[in-house]
Design goal:
With 430 residues, the chain is mainly alpha-helical. Helices cover 75% and strands 3% of the residues.
Length: 430
């Protein structure tokens, strides 16, 4: 995202959106989940009725859960790439490879629909199995080891990037501010803040439902947001010097990690082993995120129906897998299919072989991250700030300092909702 939307201007907008919009929305989602101890849709319905309001607020959460499934449809495809690269790294396919050779290799991977379908299927099955079995404890124990180890690997990559001779070029690219690029990256920055923090779809509400009453809600939310943002910045500092050293285009998009990092691992001592470990950890991180995207709708349908959890999981996973085929084909057999094309002053909903427009993957990505995630976040933060009873909100926040409590409520009731609407308006104006 930093590469596509112009470096420092995007980073600054992202940080502002995390602080003023992302954290209040995350706080709202968590307190709703912990208060109701139910799936997102049922949580909003229950709490709205307790406060004397319409139970139709649940439709906001339902929309968020649909969004989560759409995100999972393409997330599974990209997660499958990481599984593929574990095998490729283990075979030593990138040892001594040049950047152009790695680029051609990645191009061949995504050009093969059957290969992508295989790994997409495996990734979706792994996610569905965990949800169906409810293997929460084992996954939690493994993640407590794997995620810190992934961070250590990112620090190792950061150390390597400092030896490339292009580290300061990467720093300038990430942090030099160009005002003329602000408007173009404003809505993407807000969407990415939502995507990075996993807010706007109800996933955080699920975590809140399992959060102990004695835990500090505000402290946990702020801590998670700060750590998430810190890791994002460190990852960028590790990645972009390698990108520039390899002579790659920083605006290359989703495949950037799958070109620059294999090149790096292929040209350092013990790189083959480090590459295998890194992509194993990336796959596990993606796996845990996929589970959190699938769980809200599974929990909702299990609560509303008498259908067994395993069957609900299977059918939802199948739907996501099927929609994900559109993303798979976007890189190969449907590569020429373009949607929302503006050509010669004429608008076309669909056109084959057009120069502009979005492919199927781009449409799903744009619709979810730029529109549905912010709208879901707006629904949740307005609900917590204006619909829920003030006593219920105060009880869940448990902030003893009056000034901090007033600040939290001000952010949830005014800053975050207005901020989301302003960003939408600015993007429409732009």
């Amino acid at each position: 995202m930093v590469g596509v939307y112009g470096g420092g201007a995007f980073v600054l907008m992202f940080l502002i959106c995390v602080a003023l919009i992302g954290i209040p929305v995350m706080l709202a989602e968590t307190l709703i989940g912990r208060r109701a101890r139910q799936s997102p849709a049922n949580a909003l319905k229950t709490l709205a009725r307790e406060a004397g309001h319409s139970g139709k607020w649940s439709w906001g959460a339902f929309g968020g859960m649909i969004t989560a499934l759409l995100i999972l449809s393409f997330y599974s495809v990209v997660g499958g790439w990481s599984l593929d690269y574990i095998i490729d790294m283990g075979r030593g396919d990138f040892q001594g490879a040049t950047p152009s050779q790695v680029g051609v290799y990645f191009g061949n991977v995504i050009a093969d629909p059957w290969r992508l379908i295989l790994w997409h299927t495996i990734f979706m099955l792994l996610s569905a199995i965990v949800i169906a079995k409810g293997v929460v404890a084992g996954l939690e124990r493994s993640l407590r080891i794997m995620m810190p180890l992934l961070f250590v690997m990112i620090l190792v990559l950061l150390g390597y990037s400092m030896t490339t001779g292009h580290f300061m070029e990467g720093v300038h690219f990430m942090f030099d501010f160009h005002p003329e690029k602000v408007l173009g990256g404003l809505l993407p920055a807000m969407g990415h803040a939502f995507f990075s923090l996993s807010v706007g779809v109800g996933s955080i509400m699920i975590y809140g439902a399992y959060m102990p009453k004695h835990s500090s809600l505000s402290g946990t939310v702020v801590g998670v947001a700060l750590l998430d943002t810190f890791v994002s910045l460190v990852a960028g500092l590790a990645l972009f010097p390698i990108v520039f050293a390899a002579g790659l285009d920083p605006s290359e998009g989703p495949g950037l990690m799958f070109v620059s990092l294999p090149f790096a691992f292929g040209n350092v001592a013990f790189g083959q082993l480090m590459g295998v470990v890194f992509f194993v950890l990336v796959a596990i991180a993606a796996w845990s995120s996929a589970i959190s995207l699938l769980e809200p709708m599974v929990a909702y349908l299990v609560e509303r129906t008498r259908v067994r959890r395993a069957w609900v999981t299977f059918w939802l996973a199948f739907i996501c897998w099927f929609v994900g085929l559109g993303t798979v084909f976007s890189f190969n057999i449907w590569k020429q299919a373009r949607f929302f094309v503006n050509e010669d002053g004429l608008f076309h909903l669909y056109q084959w072989g057009a120069a502009g427009g979005l492919d199927f993957f781009g449409v799903i990505d744009f619709f979810t991250s730029r529109i549905m995630l912010p709208l879901g976040g707006l629904c949740f933060v307005v609900f917590a700030g204006w619909v829920m009873g003030r006593e219920a909100v105060s009880d869940e926040l448990s902030i003893r300092n009056p000034a901090l409590y007033a600040l939290s409520m001000f952010l949830m009731r005014y800053v975050a909702p207005i901020g989301i609407l302003v960003v939408f308006a600015a993007q429409l104006w732009n």
